[in-house]
Amino acid sequence: MSRVQEIATAVETGKVKLIEGLVQDALDAGENPNEILDEGMIAAMSNIGAKFQKNEVFVPEMLVAAKTMKKGIEVLRPNLKSGSLGKLGKYIIGTVEGDLHDIGKNLVALMVESAGFEVIDLGVDVAPDKFVDALNEHSDCKIVGASALLTTTMDALKSTVEAIHSAGYKDKVKIMVGGAPVTQDFADQIGADAYTPDAGSAASKAVELVS
Ligand code: B1M
Description:
Helices cover 58% and strands 10% of the residues. The protein is an alpha/beta fold. A five-stranded parallel β-sheet has the order 2-1-3-4-5, with helices on both faces. The chain binds CO-5-methoxybenzimidazolylcobamide. The site of CO-5-methoxybenzimidazolylcobamide has 39 residues, from helix 3, helix 4, helix 5, strand 3 and strand 4.
């Protein structure tokens, strides 16, 4: 089994205590950090999601896999960073109201920060007015990113865009949306400025939006 496959298996089976060592060993052996992330960790989360759908695993297994992935990302983090902090302005990010999934949002935050933004992370279950409060507090912010992982919380993306627009930020701030159930069509329908399918493209799009 390759080192990247070993990492995937460790995430999928929730080997919290082993993951840091496995990721460090893979990095020391010269594995590409982006491959460790995409083909190791993200692929593992996708597998566990498929198993959850088939009732082969349950919420506790998803939780422990998520915990394992978070630990692994901490080891990867310095290897994914490149840009100089904050030079492109502020980027407010959060997972929308009713949604507790934060791994994808955290990856977007990490990539956007690496691209040169100062990230203000509001966390999970962020109500629309909390995004507005954050914008009021950081009036020089250029982009807001909102993440949703559940079909049931896609409406909260819509409410978030509406709240930001109603608060007078329509022409001042760009809104980016994403998350597994989100599509370009949906982003267009709710009036978001951009949709991207993954964290890497979110970072490039953010740079494009302020250039
Ligand atoms: Co949940 N969960 N979960 N879960 N969970 C999913 C999302 C699900 C698809 C699993 C399944 O059924 N196959 C399903 C949603 C079905 C649906 O709505 N269509 C689901 C469900 C049903 C639930 C619960 C309702 C289960 C229950 O309680 N019965 C519950 C809801 C809780 C809530 O939020 N209110 C729940 C709970 C949980 C845990 C807490 C146990 C845990 C989350 C832990 C955590 O995040 N700290 C969890 C997990 C781990 C998952 C899966 C397995 C993995 C999610 C993940 O981290 N993926 C997930 C299955 C799956 O995704 N296949 C599943 C890895 C991550 C890197 O990908 O977040 O998609 P992702 O992010 C991607 C892109 O989407 C994109 O970039 C990232 C990659 O580069 N992206 C953006 C994300 N945000 C972006 C923002 C952007 C741009 C791109 O711009 C701003």
